[in-house]
Design brief:
Order of helices and strands: EEEEE
Distance between the termini: 33 Å
Radius of gyration: 17 Å
Strand order of the largest sheet: 1-2-3-4-5
Helix content: under 10%
Number of helices: 0
Shape: elongated
Number of strands: 5
Strand content: over 45%
Largest sheet: 5 strands, antiparallel
């Protein structure tokens, strides 16, 4: 889903970005949620930032288990060195 256009700082530059989010709900043997947010440079489509969280729960022979993940990466400079 497109959330809108934003200006974000990349290094010392302000970059116009398109902000998208994807949310997913898991059901069945594994239940939980996944959310990913991505910011793309409006002029080139270059990924500027990505944030992701996941939580999934499952029943196992030894009891319930939960998998959690949280991570992000971001571009530090627009121009290659």
């Amino acid at each position: 889903r497109f959330l809108g256009e934003e200006t974000i700082a990349v290094g010392k530059k302000d970059v116009t970005a398109h902000h998208f989010v994807r949310e997913r709900t898991m059901s069945g043997a594994q239940v939980g949620t996944e959310r990913t947010e991505v910011w793309y440079a409006a002029d080139s489509g270059l990924i500027l930032r990505n944030e992701r969280t996941v939580e999934a729960r499952s029943d196992t022979p030894i009891g319930p288990t939960t998998y959690s993940e949280s991570g992000e990466f971001h571009l530090v400079e627009v121009d290659p060195a």
